[in-house]
Write a structure and sequence with these properties.
It is built from 10 helices and 15 strands. The chain is α/β, with parallel strands linked by helices and about 300 residues long. The chain has a 5-stranded mixed β-sheet with strand order 4-3-5-15-6, with helices on one face. A 5-stranded mixed β-sheet has the order 11-8-12-7-13. Strands 10-9-14 form a 3-stranded antiparallel β-sheet.
Length: about 300
Amino acid sequence: MDVNALTLFVEIIDAGNFSQAARKLKMTRANVSYHLNQLEKSLGVQLVRRTTRHVEPTEVGLRLYEHGREIQNEVLAARETIASLGRGLQGRVGISVPSGYGQLVMSDWLIEFKRLYPGIVLDVLFENRTENVRDGVDIAVRILVDPPPSLVARDMGHVRWIACASRAYVAQNGLPRSLDELRQAPLITAGVVGRHSRLRAYQRDAAPEQREEIMLEPTLISEHFPFLREGILAGLGVGLVPDYVVQAEVDAGEVLTTLDEYRLSLFANRMYLLYMPNRHQTRAVRTCIEFLLGKAGQTLLPAMDHMPFD
């Protein structure tokens, strides 16, 4: 079997359609389709089911894809071993991180990583996206309720949401002392397009556990947490944000927290590091994954046993 044809087949399955595969392989769509047809003819079996926008492997095609992916990964690993002989750790790592957590927490980690491994090219995207790992991205960090089953998910820990306000705001308005008071306060928090903000609160010391839920009507909404942080510090209202957004100001006494008797949950509350299960990982990518997991273990809270966050 032609190894080039097998590589092309793997790329088609990874891409999910001919157009994406053609762009990645720098070929025309017609040429990609032709070579796949030739591979199927040479093997005497149908490898994919075609629709106008999508291709998916048949059972035989899936088996061939798995073998092809293993061969491709072994070739890449061999090339990396040869290229790295006598040289420091090199390579490229594409990483996608949430805009807020990425800027407020992970920036220092990534700069430290770059200093430790100057030969590695770091390509960092600060973004809030629904899709998790795509072309050019080796690692994605996401705050999720549940990680997608199609990806390898490494748990980076619990994200703690807090209700808080600046000293200036508290001096003039006080702090909400109940969930109902929180709902009526001018709220500064994140928003998801097309979804209402629904806060779930669990009493820490209640036995059995009690869950309360309120709908929020924020007055300042953004998916960009550094902007929300500025709104909180400006005294524009009560913030409902992950603790890392204002942790330095809380530690300094500039921002005060309230409703600490509750565990609060908005949208999602666990941080995951995600990557493709079948994609070859270079030493650079593997090193970056373990470095980030180590940093997260020092920073985020451990898992909360028996505490439902849904």
